[in-house]
């Protein structure tokens, strides 16, 4: 099986971001050819992979009735990376949010890029992700840019790294989010994003396709229908996701297999997209060992191989290279590379994402409009 390298430049989340700007008249490329609209609404459903949605049309009749296609999320297929891609319009190699947990070069510890936590001094969000955001560009062009999502996100480091330029509307309940969207769309020109996170968190704990997950999908479907009903004339709504998910059938536990810890100074990323930061001089041996232990389960690549294969985009900015593991381990079977001691909570997840498989990479791009 070959990795599904994201379709950067033609059909990826970065292209959606650029095309949404073009659709509201800010200019620039419109690789997805989105039609012009005075107002665009992006409904971002965390973890709603295209294959997952396609498996349950009866649970999501509204979404299943919408027209659209699919995009690739980007690598790794994880929230921080995809939100950064949407926020900057750049592939991961351009914005530097290259995984869930990344080595802070020279510091000797990992930054959790989602929670913005680290066992040492925290990096400044604007220095870690310095690229201007599409929201700043849209706002400068006279478009009212809003983001409607959980109130607790407003002050996070991730928010400061990727949502610069938005008017943040904190709303925890679906009703409040819909009201926030309605208000935000009551502008002559508007670019509004609204986020829903519980489908992903439920999938992690219960697995996708489980009764709890299906209940969440039904809620998402109703929310999408209600959002569509709030659209004023001259508006377009797009529904997408940051990544999909697989259900774990097999776990390789790095904390019970000493061979896998040998020469590995830090284990970053997450279970479906591991960054291995090796001890000096150990990367070749780590590559060999991991290839042997994970044969038939995961793609194991050196940093250079992953970069040259375009996993992170056509280019990776030189200064971001040390953020990438010396070795990457990316499962293609339903295997999770867990660390039961270092990450006891995540090690129990039933649903995981990050890899270059269709179930994780493909996300829907659905459209409805009042143009
Ligand atoms: Zn997740």
Describe the fold and architecture:
With 371 residues, this protein is of the alpha/beta class. The protein has two domains: 13-246 and 356-369, Alkaline Phosphatase, subunit A, CATH 3.40.720; 250-352, Gyrase A, domain 2. It is built from 16 helices and 17 strands. The chain has helices at 13-23, 50-54, 61-65, 79-88, 92-95, 125-128, 134-140, 157-162, 174-184, 198-206, 211-230, 258-261, 283-293, 303-308, 344-347, 358-361; strands spanning 39-45, 67-72, 101-103, 110-112, 144-149, 167-170, 190-196, 235-240, 246-247, 250-253, 264-270, 273-278, 298-302, 327-331, 335-338, 351-352, 362-369. Strands 2-17-8-1-7-5-6 form a seven-stranded mixed sheet, with helices on both faces. The protein is globular and about 60 Å long. The mean pLDDT is 97. Zinc ion binds next to helix 10.
Précis, in short:
This protein is 33% helix and 23% strand. The protein has 371 residues and is α/β, with parallel strands linked by helices.
Q: Secondary-structure map with pairings?
A:
Elements: H1 13-23, E1 39-45, H2 50-54, H3 61-65, E2 67-72, H4 79-88, H5 92-95, E3 101-103, E4 110-112, H6 125-128, H7 134-140, E5 144-149, H8 157-162, E6 167-170, H9 174-184, E7 190-196, H10 198-206, H11 211-230, E8 235-240, E9 246-247, E10 250-253, H12 258-261, E11 264-270, E12 273-278, H13 283-293, E13 298-302, H14 303-308, E14 327-331, E15 335-338, H15 344-347, E16 351-352, H16 358-361, E17 362-369
Parallel strand pairs: 1-7, 1-8, 5-6, 5-7, 10-15
Antiparallel strand pairs: 2-17, 3-4, 8-17, 9-16, 11-12, 12-14, 13-14
Bound molecules: zinc ion.
């Amino acid at each position: 099986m070959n990795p599904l390298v994201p379709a950067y430049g033609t059909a990826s989340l970065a292209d959606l971001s650029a095309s949404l700007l073009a659709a509201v008249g800010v200019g620039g490329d419109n690789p997805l050819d989105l039609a012009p609209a005075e107002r665009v609404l992006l409904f971002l459903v965390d973890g709603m992979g295209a294959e997952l949605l396609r498996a349950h049309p009866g649970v999501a009749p509204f979404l299943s009735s919408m027209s659209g296609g699919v995009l690739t999320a980007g690598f790794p297929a994880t929230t921080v990376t995809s939100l950064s891609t949407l926020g900057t319009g750049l592939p991961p190699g351009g914005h530097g949010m290259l995984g869930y947990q990344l080595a802070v070069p020279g510091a000797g510890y990992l930054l959790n890029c989602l929670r913005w936590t680290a066992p040492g001094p925290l990096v400044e969000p604007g220095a870690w992700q310095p690229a201007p955001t599409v929201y700043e560009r849209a706002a400068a062009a006279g478009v009212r840019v809003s983001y409607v999502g959980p109130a607790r996100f407003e002050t996070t480091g991730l928010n400061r790294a990727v949502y610069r330029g938005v008017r943040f509307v904190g709303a925890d309940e679906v009703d409040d989010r819909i009201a926030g969207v309605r208000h935000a769309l009551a502008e002559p020109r508007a670019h509004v994003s609204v986020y829903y996170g519980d489908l992903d968190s439920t999938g992690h704990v219960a697995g996708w396709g489980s009764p709890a997950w299906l209940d969440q999908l039904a809620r998402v479907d109703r929310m999408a229908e209600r959002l569509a009903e709030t659209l004023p004339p001259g508006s377009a709504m797009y529904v997408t996701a940051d990544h999909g998910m697989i259900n774990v059938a097999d776990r390789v536990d790095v904390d019970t297999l000493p061979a896998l810890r040998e020469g590995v100074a830090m284990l970053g990323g997450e279970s479906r997209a591991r960054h291995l930061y090796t001890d000096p001089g150990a990367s070749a041996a780590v590559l060999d060992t991991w290839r042997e232990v994970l044969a038939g389960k995961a793609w194991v690549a050196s940093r250079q191989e992953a970069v040259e294969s375009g996993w992170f985009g056509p280019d990776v900015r030189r200064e971001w290279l040390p953020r990438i593991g010396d070795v990457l381990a990316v499962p293609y079977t339903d295997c999770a590379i867990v660390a039961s001691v270092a990450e006891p909570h995540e090690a129990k997840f039933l649903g995981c994402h990050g890899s270059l498989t269709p179930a994780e990479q493909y996300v829907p791009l659905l459209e409805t409009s009042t143009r």
